[in-house]
């Protein structure tokens, strides 16, 4: 035995996809997921009834609780998107864990921004121009907590890192030219 570690993919003749291909797939999937997340947020978030007060839009305490619920719905959908995408891409591209991890972290924020825009576009606009005080208007669908934009990325990074740590083939993490414990020079970033 030569001591060189050969992965199952190499035995089957499959080469690892390029980093550009991995990043492109994650970008496309995240944009699509961001649009779907925005539509889901619009469908699942509760309506908040506002009242015109001095030319602005006010909300009472009871309806104000629904503003928190809107943020919670956005956060949960974002966590689900991060979990799903990271599980799929971390397993599918397990030979490029660094590209997967960095791409998921960056595109999680972008996907959340897309979702916020789509949900806000589809939801009520909250325009109060020309309305008298006391008129009821639906509060616009907007995210009150900007920290919710980071949930998708945080969940995706944690899941991708856990999957990468518990996989069989650790050669993409190895330093080029360093031994892997099974033999000298096996695996590296160029595999």
Structure description:
Helices cover 54% and strands 6% of the residues. It is mainly alpha-helical. Strands 2-1-3 form a three-stranded antiparallel β-sheet, with no helix packed on it. β1 (49-53) and β2 (56-58) form a beta hairpin. The longest helix is centred in the middle third of the chain and has 32 residues, at 61-92. The protein starts with 7 loop residues before the first helix and ends in a 26-residue tail after the last helix.
Tags for this entry?
191 residues; mainly alpha; three-stranded antiparallel sheet; disordered C terminus
- Biggest sheet details: 3 strands, antiparallel
Report the radius of gyration as a whole number of Å.
23 Å
SS-based structural class?
Answer: mainly alpha
Q: Helicity level, as a percent range?
A: 40-55%
The end-to-end span amounts to 20 Å
Number of strands: 3
- Could you tell me the mean pLDDT? 79
Count of DSSP H/I helices:
5
What is the string of SSEs from the N terminus onward?
HHEEHHEH
Low-confidence segments: 182-191
Tell me the fraction of residues in β-strands, as a range: 5-15%
Strand order of the largest sheet: 2-1-3
Q: What's the overall geometry?
A: elongated
Protein topology:
Layout: H1 8-11, H2 19-44, E1 49-53, E2 56-58, H3 61-92, H4 97-122, E3 136-138, H5 151-165
Antiparallel strand pairs: 1-2, 1-3
Could you give a short description of this structure?
The chain has 191 residues and is mainly α.
